[in-house]
Amino acid sequence: MSWSTAGIWAIIVTLGIGTFLMRFSFLGAMGGRRLPDWLQRHLRYTPVAVLPALVAPAVVWPPATGGDPDPARLAAAIVTVAVGWWRKSVLAAIGAGAVTLYTLLFLLG
Amino acid sequence: MPASTRKSAYLTGLRQGAPFLLILVPFALLFGVVATEAGFSLLEVMGFSMVVLAGAAQFSAVQLMAENAHTLVVIATALAVNMRMAMYSASLTPYLGAAPLWQRALVAYGLFDQTYAVAHARFEARPEMTVPERIAFFAGAVTPMLPAWYGMTLVGAVAGRSIPPEFALDFALPITFLAMVAPALRTPAHVAAAGTSVALALVFAGLPFNLGLMIAAVAAMVVGAEIERRMGAR
């Protein structure tokens, strides 16, 4: 790595300010005004629209296996979604996913 | 607004936020280890966790810097990863927009995937909550998470040794995010949005600067909203 201390801090501070501005954007500018219905309707889907896209490539092509699809990780992802949907519980889903992952990694070694 | 309902909202937030420590702790630990091994000083590693406060973006930035990518590429990629924060901000505005500016600024600093998921679920389920109660709930949810994020980054950075790959910690993030999404798949519109999100993220995975993520997310929101509109009710 060939970064000067100043170069590293420039990146940290820029990312900090940029990220804060994105977090503050609507909360800061809109105040108590009501968002239009069409926008609210879209925003209701923010979590289910962003989070799956954030992780889908890592589920199908895990960096840890050099990008090769891995049965243990695929199965763990499917079990996590199934249990989370069925039990409506984040913790139950994480637990089931972790157990599936470690069991299959152990069995398939 | 009686202080007692604010206090109980704070305690509820504390209770509902606490389970997410199971996710934050290994994630922060891992960031401390990875960034230290990439060659960053203790102060710089802590700077990332305290100033940027966004796991996925921190990992992206450190990864690219370790590969000696151009400064602009590092910044553009990490900010693209964080663009979802603007969506979170907009999504919480109907619930928190009437709060004083300084409170909204503090909420903004503490707004990340886990606090957003906890707060949005609670606010949606309890429309009768007042704005001060919502702020108190959010403060409660953040209370255990921030010290854990800073502290475990520090522990990881000081320990400075690799966690053995057998622990498969690379998969802690995907499992966490999927576990947060699954309980929200309660209507055909939500399922269609999630399906669109996965499909397009895979199709566009090769695009630079995480553009695939942004395309998939925006398209999925449009699909969800359009299905909701056509079905006439949520």
TrEMBL record, chain A:
One Pfam short name: AzlD
Keywords: Membrane, Transmembrane, Transmembrane helix
Keyword Transmembrane helix among UniProt keywords: yes
Transmembrane domains' residue ranges: 6-24, 45-64, 90-108
UniProt protein name: Branched-subunit amino acid transport protein
Native species: Rhodovulum kholense
Source lineage: Bacteria, Pseudomonadati, Pseudomonadota, Alphaproteobacteria, Rhodobacterales
Automatic annotation (TrEMBL), chain B:
Entry GO terms, CC: plasma membrane
Subcellular location per the Swiss-Prot or TrEMBL entry: Cell membrane
Alphabetical UniProt keywords: Cell membrane, Membrane, Transmembrane, Transmembrane helix, Transport
InterPro entries: Brnchd-chn_aa_trnsp_permease (IPR011606)
Domain of life: Bacteria
Segments crossing the lipid bilayer: 45-65, 72-91, 135-160, 167-185, 197-225
Membrane topology: Multi-pass membrane protein
One protein family per Pfam: AzlC
Keyword Transmembrane: yes
Gene Ontology biological process terms from the UniProt entry: L-valine transmembrane transport
Family statement drawn from the similarity comment of this UniProt entry: Belongs to the AzlC family.
Protein name per UniProt: Putative branched-subunit amino acid permease
Record organism: Rhodovulum kholense
